[in-house]
Structure formats: structure tokens, C-alpha cells
Amino acid sequence: MTMGLSPFSDVLARVSEIETMVASAVPQPVQQVPAASSPPTFASLLSAVQTPGDAGENTVAAAASQVGAAEEPPGSNDGPQIAAYRSAVAGAQAGEPWCAYFASWACAQAGTPLGFSGEGLGSVSQITSWAQATGRYLPAGSTPEPGDLILFGDQHVGVVEAVNPDGSLTTIEGNYDNQVSQVHRMPGEATGYVRPSA
After folding, report:
1. 157: which strand partners?
2. Using one digit for the tens of pLDDT, what is the confidence trace for 7-37?
3. What is the extent of the structural domain holding 130?
């Protein structure tokens, strides 16, 4: 993997290389009629779906799109939408606390899946350990960016939506009052942060 490029950028670069190899291997007719416009390449279509470098914004957008999604029935740690969040984590179990499932889902939607193999992580302690092992962990007192994950010990995790002018934070948290909620937090509540796109 090339240093400094995101995994998404690596995929785009590799797809472009493959397209170039395929194009050069196909015999070309002696005389070509110029096309009015060439069809889009697979790499250009992928690039249009997501712009590398927007991972934080994309994480926030994915999380924000879910505000209000709730457990069915309340208190069950389950429901159709919660099942969708579980799908982002290998080995996820119905009925388990789902804040880490939600964070894993939001990051996967943004193209920055959590875990060494992108398998998603089902607990706050797993997220913290992975972040520390991969240089993505920011200690308490750090200034987060939109799209970073906010940690509350080993008990809870959310997505930083905004750092407000007064220093407070707006977060989007799964499994807060049995639903996905927008929450106002003070920085002193965080025990650390994770920058998934680091």
C-alpha cells in the first residue's frame, strides 16, 4: 500500500491500472472512427461515488441520516434498522448493545471500515484497542474533527458531528435512549477519540 493514500485511493489507482492493461491488450483496429464521447471508466464511476479525503464528512452524513432510528420494541437492542447496523460487524449478535455496531456501520458507509481487515468492531474496547494499535487513537484533551469517534470509557461510542465555537461537541450516538440521537457533549466527558481515516 502506498503511504499517504487512503485504501479507497489505492483501489481507484489499481482499477485504473487494470483498465489501462486491458485496453492495451485488446487489439485496436487499423482505422478508428472517433467517438462522440467515450463511456465512463469504472474508476471514474467509483470516484464519483466518493471523493477521497471526505471520509469524516461522509461518516457524519451517514450517521446523521439515521437520527431517530429506534429499537423495535424499545429496550430490545434490536429492530430492522439495528439489524442493518449489525451487518457491518462480523459475528454481531442480535440483542447486544449496539453503539459500536452503529459506529462501525457509519464508518463503513464512508469507506473507512473499522478493524484490521475492515470487519467492523462490536465493542468499545475493541475499537479502542484497534485505534491504539494502528495510530488512530487520540487521547482525552485532543481536539476532534467531524467524523472522529468519541469514546466514553469502554461503555459507549459515538460520532463527532461538530466542534462548536464554545468548544462543546455535537455528536450522533447509536443506542442513546434506545435510538440514534444527536447529543450535546462537553469535551471533558470523552475518554479519547478515534480518527478512522488516519
Report:
1. 151
2. 555 555 665 665 665 555 544 444 443 444 4
3. 55-194
Q: Are residues 5 and 102 in the same domain?
A: no
Q: How far apart, in whole angstroms, are the C-alpha atoms of residue 108 and residue 73? A: 26
User: From CA 71, how far away is CA 59, in angstroms rounded?
Assistant: 21
What percentage of the chain carries pLDDT values higher than 90? Answer: 72
Does any domain span residue 89?
Answer: yes
Greatest alpha-carbon span in the chain? 70
> Where in the chain does DSSP place strands (E)?
137-139, 149-152, 156-163, 169-176, 179-185, 192-194
The pTM assigned to this predicted structure is 0.74
Residue 13: predicted pLDDT: 62
Query: Do residues 46 and 89 both lie within one domain?
Result: no
